[in-house]
Amino acid sequence: MPEIAWSQLHRRFTPGFETLLKQGMTSGWYDPNNTLQLMVFRWVFIPWLQEELNNYQTRLNNTRKRHDRNKVMVTPAAIDHVHELYINPTHTVFDLLPSSLGMFIELCYDQLGRPSVNRHSVWTIYLDLLGLLRRCAEISPILKAADPHVTIDDELPLLPGLQELPLNEMDTH
């Protein structure tokens, strides 16, 4: 994305969403240090924000631009090739939260009638899910198994033709 597009995103898109997100913290609805609140926040807000960004990108990409003869077009096939080569979609980095908790929240969302998530309903849905989850006796063991502070240190394999960097034992930083 060119720098001007980033600037426009920051100026036009971001402020409204930052204000909306701050509302939850200033109202006392969301504490990122509370595991249950963090997990519900991730489940509700991240997919919704991603969808909003995708819609913004679609609007931007479908707006007629001036011709730029220096522009280098990348084929969709090349992007697909790189995606297949370097991205493992089943890697844990792509999980918003542990699957057992995600499935449990999904069941609670079903009980709420699967309301549409938008800027006017997102905090209401978050609070309704949170209230429903707090009333469930099954949530405590699921949360203990879903500690967000536990990290999985999967070592990524070195790409073919590359070698490990030497350790500089003289460097003390």
Quick recap:
Helix content is 55%, strand content 0%. It is an all-alpha fold.
Strand content: under 5%
Main β-sheet, in a few words?
A: none
Low-confidence parts: 150-154
Q: How would you sum up the global shape?
A: extended
Estimate the mean pLDDT confidence: 83
Amino- and carboxy-terminal Cα gap: 34 Å
Instruction: Let me know the number of strands.
Output: 0
Could you state the order of secondary-structure elements as H and E? HHHHHH
Structural class: mainly alpha
Assembly classification: single chain
Gyration radius, to the nearest Å? Answer: 21 Å
Give the % helix: 40-55%
**Tally of contiguous helical segments:** 6
List keywords for this structure.
55% helix; single chain; mainly alpha; 173 residues; extended
What do you see in this structure?
- The chain is mainly α and 173 residues long.
- It has a domain at 31-61 and 75-145.
- It has 6 helices and no strands.
- It has helices at 3-26, 35-61, 76-86, 99-111, 122-134, 139-145.
- Helix 2 (35-61) packs antiparallel against helix 5.
- The protein is extended and about 60 Å long.
- It starts with a helix and ends in a 28-residue tail after the last helix.
- Mean pLDDT is 83; it is low at 150-154.
Task: List the SSEs and their pairings.
Layout: H1 3-26, H2 35-61, H3 76-86, H4 99-111, H5 122-134, H6 139-145
Helix pairs in contact: 2-5
